[in-house]
Amino acid sequence: MDSPTRPDSDATTLTPSEARALRKTWSPPQPGTPVGRYLVREPIGSGGMGHVVSAWDPELARPVALKFVGRVDKGGEQERLQREAQAMAQLKHPGVVPVYDVGVWEGRVFLAMELVDGENLKDWADAHPRAVHEVIDLLCQVGAALQAAHAAGIVHRDVKPANVLVDKDGRARITDFGVARVQGDETRQALTPVKGPIGDDTASGRIVGTIGYVAPETMYGALATPAADQFALAVTAWQLLTGVLPFLQTVDTACAEQMGADGLRPREAARVPRRIRKVLLRGLRGDPSRRYPSVRAFADALAPPPPTSRARWAIRIAAAMVLVPAYLLLLGYGLTRYAMSSVVDACRSRAMYGSLEFWSPSRVMHVSQVFGQRPSAVAEAYVERWRDASLGACLTKDLMQRPSRVAQAQRDCLDGHISKLDERLRALEAAGATASEVDAQLRELEDPRACVDHWSGETGAVAPWPPPVL
Questions:
Q1: Backbone angles phi, psi at 285, to 5 degrees
Q2: CA 121, CA 144: separation in Å to the nearest integer?
Q3: Lowest mean pLDDT among 34-38, 78-82, 229-233, 441-445
Q4: Any idea which of 143-157, 274-288, 308-322, 397-411 has the lowest mean pLDDT?
Q5: How do 118-120 and 50-57 pair as beta strands?
Q6: If you write DSSP's letter for every residue of 43-54 in order, what string do you get?
């Protein structure tokens, strides 16, 4: 790592009037402008928390990103920003965009960072429908990076999809520590409750971070802690899995009280798998003491459980228990019940994840927007039938010990049915079909439960196919 650039000797001794004048006239450097040893190339982006430009480092012959943070208010504030930036420059983790250098240009602290070739997490999610396991994998990577920052005493304070980069190798890289706080530095400004729509950026001095991702305890003056980063990561996860933020209300006192009482339950919750939803709701607790003890614990809970063959072995052990004395029969019965429950849960999870690869939340919203609610409801009914058939195929394989060739034939049949639904939706969209035409075409699809012999499934819980015409 390069040694941090020291600020100019007069950068921290501005009078209040000089600071106000410089703040009013300051603008980001234009292409070709030298900033320290760096030569500015082009702007990358800007927001309430700073400006980012790409630049060239002639000494090491490499491109960098320059992030300008902090406003010129007084010498102490400038020194604090410099001290926090230097602390972040010491943070080394593959999931954190490294800071190479720290300096001051025209009264503002800047950080020279690696220029990542990729896109932010929001653009990555919007590019095309993503499977649940893809989203969870990247979020777990972000959690590991945040845990490393917290271990170094740094709280990010502005975790959101726009501040996570996905590089060309598919790795999540968290960036934009420009509003981070080093734990132990208790300097803070009095925060004022703010009213505004979700998603607005609010500058330092009111709410530090982005409204909608800010934890409720920091919204009204409490210092940000690792629990606040965990809350923001849970919000980010919810947004990526459902397409919306969990708290879609004006940020005012009443909203904060509801969040603190865990009173908000968005209607999109059904789109999040049950196990993951349970983890996220704990991370979204209004009381930070009721969240997970660390971001690492949150990410570990979010990660999928390792595959296990315990259920199959339990069934075989239970069958062997028939030959033991009578007092062991009760134990065998209990083990059998436990094993069957595990198999059913595992099969149900496989069916759900299998359908989400095609019928993800973003795909649901797209179909609804293109064709309307009625065709979307018919497609949803078909996917429900497919899940039920997939559950039946899994159970007949694991519980009835069907031959592998039979199980594979059922799997191929089911894959063919879901592919036909996908192909028909794409063809109808390309042809500009009307809602009634789409409705009629989808009802002609063959029932996917025909792939599974002798399986009634959860008949009472699944609508008939084709569904009745409304």
A1: -60, 140
A2: 16
A3: 78-82
A4: 308-322
A5: unpaired
A6: EEEEETTEEEEE
Query: Has this prediction a pTM greater than 0.70?
Result: no
The reply to whether 158 belongs to the active site is yes
Q: Could you give the CA distance from residue 211 to residue 113 in angstroms, rounded to a whole number?
A: 26
User: Rounded to whole angstroms, how far apart are CA atoms 110 and 195?
Assistant: 30
pLDDT in tens, 94-123: 898 888 888 888 878 788 888 988 888 988
Six-digit token pair at 165? 């980069």
Q: Which residue, chain included where needed, has tokens 């980010």? A: 236
CATH number 3.40.50.150 given to 16-114: no
Instruction: List C-alpha distances in Å: 212 to 161, 236, 260.
Output: 12, 10, 14
Tell me the average pLDDT across 293-306: 90
* Domain 118-302, architecture per CATH: Orthogonal Bundle (1.10)
Tell which phi-psi region holds residue 117, choosing left (phi > 0), alpha (psi between -120 and 50) or beta.
beta
Nearest partner of 227 among 289, 276, 181, judged by Cα: 289
User: Which two three-digit tokens encode residue 441?
Assistant: 């075409």
From 158, 176, 398, 439, the catalytic residue: 158
Please tell me whether residue 17 adopts helix, strand or coil conformation: helix
Domain ranges of the chain: 16-114, 118-302, 310-461
Q: 227: which DSSP letter?
A: H
- pLDDT at residue 56, rounded to an integer: 95
Is the pLDDT confidence value at 178 over 70? no
